[in-house]
């Protein structure tokens, strides 16, 4: 996986510890998708950014191991799972909304918090 | 740099766009260091997580290009620069503090927001 997925030296910094879990951009995009109500492998894969399937499978496994997401079987043949954020996962909301605000201020053309909230209704 | 530094497909998602800039954990740790008042290459390198010097040099260059940081020369022989967050950089504060809160809730042993703020005084 290369150095980007390797661990930092031990640190008591809360930001560093959070980044051990969420510290690559694909992981946070999957969490974003889950917040937006997406639940299936297919739905994550269809997101605009085009996450490669091997990365998606890996990130879902990591997020489940960290108890950020739960999975439940919704089909038997072939077996298919639906994923949902746990409370621990949902609690990443404020950090993601803070990112939305920053982008709205500094990156022209990004969807506003209002537009996103409307699409969630 | 491998796939983790490669660009997403174009997206209007504000989170995805932010992650194009900050989306590897070392970058956010350098921003954290700057928020904590660190200014020099040496200070960043001394942080607990042990950022490799080649990654540090690359991330400083990217952050400067994105106008997240400014640099000013503070020594001539050899040339040494001090780095500071621009307003655009400082405005990442709320997202980082939200990460601190999440970690304090879910990762035992991480420094609390209070402890961090005290160390800043």
Write up this protein.
2 copies of one chain form a homodimer. The first copy, chain A, is mainly α and 121 residues long. Chain A has a single domain (10-120), classed as Orthogonal Bundle (Arc Repressor Mutant, subunit A), CATH 1.10.10.10. Helix content of chain A is 53%, strand content 11%. Chain A has helices spanning 14-22, 25-35, 41-45, 53-65, 87-90, 93-106, 113-120; strands at residues 69-75, 80-85. A two-stranded antiparallel ribbon of chain A has the order 1-2. In chain A, a hairpin with a 4-residue loop joins strand 1 (69-75) and strand 2. The first copy, chain A, is globular and about 45 Å long. The termini of chain A are far apart. Residues 1-5 of chain A have low confidence and may be disordered. The interface between A and B is large, with 52 and 52 residues.
Write the layout of secondary structure elements.
Two copies of one chain form a homodimer.
Chain A: H1 14-22, H2 25-35, H3 41-45, H4 53-65, E1 69-75, E2 80-85, H5 87-90, H6 93-106, H7 113-120
Antiparallel strand pairs in A: 1-2
Total number of beta strands of chain A: 2
- What string, H for helix and E for strand, traces the elements of chain A in order? HHHHEEHHH
Mean pLDDT of chain A: 89
Query: What percent strand of chain A?
Result: 5-15%
CA-atom Rg of chain A in angstroms: 15 Å
Largest interface: A-B, 52 and 52 residues
Q: What count of domains describes the coordinates of chain A?
A: 1
pLDDT < 50 runs, ≥5 residues of chain A: 1-5
Structural class of chain A: mainly alpha
Give the fraction of residues assigned to helices of chain A. Answer: 40-55%
CATH topology of chain A: Arc Repressor Mutant, subunit A
Distance between the termini of chain A: 38 Å
What is the second-level CATH architecture of chain A? Orthogonal Bundle
Give the biggest sheet of chain A.
2 strands, antiparallel
Helix count of chain A? 7
Give the CA-based shape of chain A.
Answer: globular
Q: Based on the structure, what is the oligomeric state of the protein chains?
A: homodimer
User: Quick one: CATH superfamily of chain A?
Assistant: Winged helix-like DNA-binding domain superfamily/Winged helix DNA-binding domain
